[in-house]
Each structure stands twice: as C-alpha cells, then as structure tokens.
Amino acid sequence: MAQDVSLRADHPDEYTVVRGDTLWDISARFLDQPWQWPAIWHANQQIQNPHLIYPGDRISLVYIDGSPRLMVDRGRPEIRLSPGIQREQRESIGAYPLEMIKPFIRNSRIVSAEQYATLPYVVKNFETQLNATVGDRTYVRGVSGSEGQRFAIVRLHNIYYKTDDEKRRAIDQGYSRHSPERLEIPAGFWRPVNTWGQKTEIIGYELYEVSLATLIKTGDPAILSIDSGRTEVREGDRVLPIDEHSFPAHFMPRAMASVPDGLKVLAIEGAHYGVGHFMTVAISGGSRQGVEEGHVFSAFRPGETVRDDVKYPAGSMADARTWNGDKVQLPAEYDAHIMVFRVFDEVSYAMVMDGERPVREHDILRHPDETL
Questions:
Q1: Which domains does the chain have, with CATH numbers?
Q2: Side by side, which strands form the sheet with 41-42?
Q3: Cα separation of 102 and 187, whole Å?
Q4: Nearest-CA neighbor of 261 among 372, 112, 367?
Q5: Cβ contact 31:12 at 8 Å
Q6: Going residue by residue through the chain (372 aa), what tens digit of pLDDT does each one get?
Q7: What's the sign of the alpha-carbon dihedral 7, 10, 15, 20?
Q8: Whole-number Å distance between alpha carbons of 205 and 25
Q9: Helices (H) and strands (E) in the chain, counts
C-alpha cells in the first residue's frame, strides 16, 4: 500500500510540529493525498504513545526497504517553570481543528424513527407559559430517572429520508402536511430545504439541544427545573439523557475498504450555495453502512442533464423527431474531500477538509482517491 502513496513534489525531508497543527495539515505537507497518512506512518515503539503527535515532535521522511515512511522523533516537552514547580504543558494534536466543529454542531443528535416515537416530551410549562426559561419549571411525560438527575431538552430540526431520486430532497423543512410537527430552524444551522414528492423511508430525526434541566419530582408528568439553555423550552420539545459524547481527536484520516453505493451529502451547514473548508455536512451513511470516525470521502457534484442543441438544433426536423432533443447526462465533477467526525446509525457528520469547489447537497460520495 505504501508503494502506491504519492509524495508531494515539494515535500520537506522533515517538519517540526507546532501548536495549532492538525494531522491533516502535516499530512498535506508530505503527501498529495493527506488521507493516505496511515499507509506510510511508522510508529516507533521505543517512544511513549507512538501513535500520538505533540508540538515539538520532528516528523521525518525516510525510506525502509525502498518504501517511504514517516517517523516521529519525540521533541523536548514544553515546560512551564515556577518557584518550586515544574509542570509539563503538552497536548497531542488532533486530526482536525476541534474548535471549528463545536460552534456549529450545537450538541445535535440523530435518533431513529422508532426512538423518536418513544422519547419523553414536554406536555406543558409551568403556569401553561408558551415559553419557559432558566429558573422555570416544565412538565414532562414519559421520563424515567431519579430526582436530581439532569437531562437535555431537545427540539426537532431535520428529518432525513432515504431516497435515490435526485428530484426529491433528502430532508424535510417541516412545513408540509407530511411532517409530524412544525420544525424550528435556528440561524446558522443546516439550511432549510423543501421536500418534493412522496416521502421515502426515514433514516433519522435530527435533534438539537435547547436547554438543560434537572428532575425535581418524579411522576407522570414529572417536574423538571430548567438550569441553563440556548433558547426557551416549548410544548412538544423532547427529552434525552445528557450527551456524554466527546469528539474524537486521536484518529488517522483513512479510506473505507469499499465505499457503499448511494452515499450522498444530505445537508450542509448554513450556506445556500455550498460549504467550504472546515464547514460541516451530514451524509447518508452511518455505523450500519460501516462508516467510522476518520473515514475520508471525495464529494462529487452530479452532472446536469442537458439538451444536445448541437445534434438536435432547436426548431430543426431532427429536434421535431425527438420532441425535446437528445438528453445528455454530464459527468459528475469533484468538489472536495470530507472527513467524518461523528457517526450515528444511518447518518454521520463530516467536515470539509480541502477541495476545489464548495460541497453541496446531493453531492455523491466516492473513494478519496477519486478526484476526476
């Protein structure tokens, strides 16, 4: 595998890691395809935590049995000195800039249709207020737990559908009769998209956190006290255990052994025209399809179906015989590489890592080697 790796023509012989680097950035200094890093990474077992890379480490390109390898020479740790105290300040680098993800994800989670149907829900707020905020109480049906236990109050954002029809949208804005309820779309989140045509199988309900609350009295309904929140609690909001997920930082970008057919970009973060570097997307593949954190894909924009006006000029006899002329499907074109950072059952979140054009909804996902 290492023999197939393409080194950059201008690659350095060595590079010293600095604070703020990511594994993708370092890989891109040596390789044409940064996701190929695992193929030539040589973990030196003589040093502690050989798979982790720290600021100050020196990465060197060497050849072993004629094949390129990247090796780490552990640099001197950064030390802060103070009277009578020596403390090591050393934190390994991640595969991507974690701080870029958190503002956009907003503690989103995706659950199945079956899970969504059984979630506890807010039936009313204290004194039947339309909105409840920090310090208020709210009443929840179906919640189980002990007094003092904390929960997340969440709101439905998107419904993802399984579809192979390019004319049919993969997500539902929530203003049609097919939607189980009216969806609230917060500013800066996935942009709303209308769904046309008959709906297909639901592969996930996307929920975003609006508040945190503590169970202060059990029962049906139970009483929860709202502790903190991004927005007010409303009737119909759902309740989930607090998300303990920590975003992975220590993995290597890599390809799937075989990319399943039909993987696509379902939704994009915020923009109407597409998203670029370090922005996030949702894709139509999760753990059930073998998708894992760190998997990299090439996103291709589907080619348009156009009229062949050269062979069938408008108004000509040839055009009349074919009614609307001969239709031609233009080839799909490469947009960018994306890397998965959180996986659910059938939907995952990914970050745009590099590319030539913005990533758009319905982009087709292929093996990261493909860029043509």
A1: 2-73 (3.10.350), 104-241 (no CATH), 265-366 (2.40.10)
A2: 14-16, 58-64, 67-73, 41-42
A3: 15
A4: 367
A5: no
A6: 344 788 999 999 999 999 888 888 888 999 988 888 888 887 666 566 667 788 888 999 888 888 888 888 876 555 444 554 444 456 788 877 777 776 666 678 899 999 999 999 999 999 888 899 999 999 999 999 999 999 999 999 888 887 654 433 444 443 333 344 444 444 444 443 444 445 568 899 999 999 999 999 999 999 999 998 888 999 999 999 988 777 766 777 889 989 999 999 998 887 678 888 888 899 999 999 999 999 999 999 999 988 887 877 776 666 555 655 678 889 999 999 999 999 999 999 999 998 889 999 999 999 998 988
A7: negative
A8: 34
A9: 5, 24
- Report how far apart the first and last C-alpha atoms of the chain are (Å, whole number): 21
131-135, Cβ contacts within 8 angstroms, sequence gap of 24 or more: 131/232, 131/233, 131/234, 132/226, 132/232, 132/233, 132/234, 133/211, 133/226, 133/229, 133/232, 133/233, 134/211, 134/226, 134/227, 134/228, 134/229, 135/225, 135/226
* Cβ density class 3-35: b for 16+ within 10 Å, e for less: eebeeeeeeeeebebeeebbbbbbbbebbebbb
Between strands 67-73 and 41-42, the pairing is parallel
Q: How is residue 332 written in tokens?
A: 């799909």
d(C-alpha 162, C-alpha 200), whole Å:
6
